[in-house]
Design brief:
Blueprint lengths: L3 E2 L3 E4 L6 H8 L15 H14 L2 E6 L5 E9 L8 E8 L8 H15 L5 E6 L4 H9 L3 E11 L5 E10 H6 L6
């Protein structure tokens, strides 16, 4: 996992020492829009953190000044795109840091990396219909609405939601490249 930087953030690999910061994020029921059950104890978070470290497909989003981890961004293959070299992206941010532009800042840096250094063709992202904050982040990052997949996502508690899909093509990224610097 390549370390990336922005004005206020360091996007880096996960470390065992991040368990407390990750627990602070994952125990909050307000962030279950990611589909998982809020963590009831730090041991659950430790197991999840080990998976993050092993899979190497998630950046820890940490503040430059304090080094505190405040979020996570995952990038993984989007195998539904035919001939495109496509990835999908999702993210979570500690509720304590909502509304400060951190996740948009992190996403724009990762998008730049994916299109310019990994040379992908397309990047997709999904959110639940009532997660308006995620919708706004995606739109600020240049994603365009693609489709709503009815009953396309199942949460930890068995509740089924529509999945709202957004995507951005490399050609659209290149056309609007100035917005990512």
């Amino acid at each position: 996992m390549m370390t990336l930087e922005t004005q206020r953030l360091i996007l880096r690999e996960w470390r065992k020492t991040d368990v407390s910061d990750l627990f602070d994020i994952m125990k909050n029921s307000s962030v279950i829009m990611g589909g998982w059950e809020p963590h009831s104890n730090i041991n659950i978070t430790g197991d999840v953190l080990n998976e993050y470290i092993e899979s190497d497909d998630r950046w820890a989003v940490s503040l430059k000044d304090s080094k505190k981890v405040i979020g996570c961004v995952r990038v993984y293959p989007d195998n539904n795109r035919g001939n495109f070299y496509a990835k999908s992206i999702n993210y979570v941010l500690s509720e304590d840091y909502w509304g400060n532009g951190y996740i948009t800042e992190a996403m724009k840096r990762i998008i730049k990396y994916l299109f310019e250094e990994l040379d992908i063709d397309l990047l997709s992202a999904f959110h639940y219909p009532d997660n308006i904050k995620s919708k706004k982040v995606l739109e600020k990052c240049g994603f365009e609405y693609e489709i709503t997949i009815e009953q396309g996502s199942k949460r930890f508690d068995g509740k089924v939601f529509d999945a709202v899909c957004y995507s951005i093509l490399k050609s659209d990224y290149i056309e609007n490249k100035l917005h990512y610097n």
